Amino acid sequence: MARDEGVAAAGAGGVAVPILALTLGHVFSNAVRTLPAVAADVLAADLNLSAEGLAAVTAVFPASFALAMVPTGVALDRYGVRRTALALLAVGAVGAVLAALAGGAAGMLLAQAVLGVGCSGMLMCPVTFAARALPLPRFALWSGIIQAFGNTGMLLSASPLALLVEWRGWQAGFWASAALAVLAWTAVALAVPEPPLPRSARRTVWQDAREVVTLARSPALRPLMVFAFASFAAVLGVRGLWGGPWLMEVKGLGRVEAGNLLLLCTAALTLGPALAGVVDRLLGRRAALMAGSHVLVALFILLMAAGGPGGPLASALGLPVLPPAFDGMLLALFGLTISFQVLIFPAARAMVPAEQTGRALSAINTSFFGGAAAMQAVSGVAAAFGGIAAALCSFAAALLLCSAGFLLLLRRKPPVAVAAR
Predict the structure, then answer these.
(1) Under a CB-based contact definition with an 8 Å cutoff, are residues 57 and 109 in contact?
(2) What class has domain 10-193+204-419?
(3) Is the pLDDT of residue 322 over 90?
(4) Which Pfam family is an annotated match for this chain, by its short name (predicted)?
């Protein structure tokens, strides 16, 4: 079982093409979930929502994503990557169409729920395929490549989709995302081999689902679950929702100019995972790199908020507000540094047998997106009381708290896979 899919792929000319075909789904997922960052104002106006209301509606995406992770993890180990990817991409395409057709808050809420389910395996499918097909050192490298390639979806939702939204409205952005899902489905159907069913029929689906929950609660994975809770929440909150409104409403930029600065962040998110893999191999201090990157990211967020109108940093420099170039620099540093979150995947993979890979990685992803859903709701409340700066700062607080919890749990029972190269 350990390498059924990898062996089949090798016969078709290697693992690179199937992995990249599967990663197109991750490109789609990143594009569709970060689209609100460049369309928040028109989305809120057309759907008759406040900023915090839009945050609550879009929080349904990571919430349904997190809920779908248990059955997704079971499906990856029970039915294989190809079948799971094709089913989820079809659901994702339907979700994007529902979003494009949404005429009100209820319609968009339904669309976000369907999109969350459809996107739930878009990272785990290529990661699980690679974990089964490759030895651990090569998997660590490929996990960075998968994340980097997948993050190009956020390149699409920066300047290109900002231009499309400006020209044809936010609906066009979701139609374009639906087309991307269809392209990814076609690539998977053509390039990814169909392996034998990887699990015995003697085990029930319920037993497999319970194992995902058991893995999530295990002492070995517990530090990683705490780390993950704030990690993707920060990406989705800063790049996916509040970054655009901050640049447009607080800093006074137009949609395309804001999209260009978000493009800097996305370019850094695309380069960062590969850099993280190289630094991890050179230094071999994975736990310190993971926690330290989160602390630095929290600092960058706090500095961005402090440079806003009347902020302490702007006031200390004798300026009413710091220029948007300052935010662009911090957003680029944010993207480069938060990318060290990718180190969680080789850490988790080293802790479980190959046949449990899909469930273990899905357990981690449940925390990624469960935290994103919770923090998106918290950020909406923070915005209602203190504006967009308060919403941004809520993610900085979560990063600091979860980094402290991660290190504390490692001190109690340090997992070898996190501490080692």
Answers:
(1) yes
(2) mainly alpha
(3) yes
(4) MFS_1
Q: Any idea where the domains of the chain sit in the sequence?
A: 10-193+204-419
Q: What is the per-residue pLDDT across 334-378, written as a single tens digit (0 to 9) for each?
A: 999 999 998 888 888 777 676 666 677 778 878 887 888 889 889
Is residue 208 predicted with pLDDT exceeding 70? no
Which one-letter amino acid corresponds to residue 68? A
Q: What is the pLDDT of residue 191?
A: 92
Nearest alpha-carbon partner for 37 in 304, 331, 242, 261: 242
Say if residue 291's pLDDT is above 80.
yes
Structure tokens at 376: 């998106």
Q: What angle do CA 148, 154, 157 make, to 5 degrees?
A: 160
Rounded-to-integer distance, Cα 147 and Cα 270, Å: 7
The full 3-state SS of the chain, as one line of letters, equals CCCHHHHHHHHCCCCHHHHHHHHHHHHHHHHHHHCHHHHHHHHHHHCCCCHHHHHHHHCHHHHHHHHHHHHHHHHHHHHCHHHHHHHHHHHHHHHHHHHHHCCCHHHHHHHHHHHHHHCCCCCHHHHHHHHHHCCHHHHHHHHHHHHHHHCHHHHHCCHHHHHHHHHHCHHHHHHHHHHHHHHHHHHHHHHCCCCCCCCCCCCCHHHHHHHHHHHHHCCCCHHHHHHHHHHHHHHHHHHHHHHHHHHHHHCCCCHHHHHHHHHHHHHHHHHHHHHHHHHHHHHCCHHHHHHHHHHHHHHHHHHHHHCCCCCHHHHHCCCCCCCHHHHHHHHHHHHHHHHHHHHHHHHHHCCCCHHHHHHHHHHHHHHHHHHHHHHHHHHHHHHHHHHHHHHHHHHHHHHHHHHHHHHHHHHHCCCHHHHCC
Please check the confidence at residue 326 and state whether its pLDDT lies above 70.
yes
**pLDDT of residue 2 exceeding 50:** no
Q: What pLDDT does residue 159 have?
A: 65
Q: Which of 110, 137, 142, 138 is nearest to 123 (CA)?
A: 142
Q: What is the pTM of this model?
A: 0.73
Q: Which amino acid is at 411?
A: R
Asked if residue 288 lies in contact with residue 164, where contact means CB atoms within 8 angstroms, the answer is: no
Of residues 243 and 404, more confidence is placed in: 404
For position 10, what pLDDT does the model report? 42
Whether 416 shows a pLDDT value over 60: the answer reads no
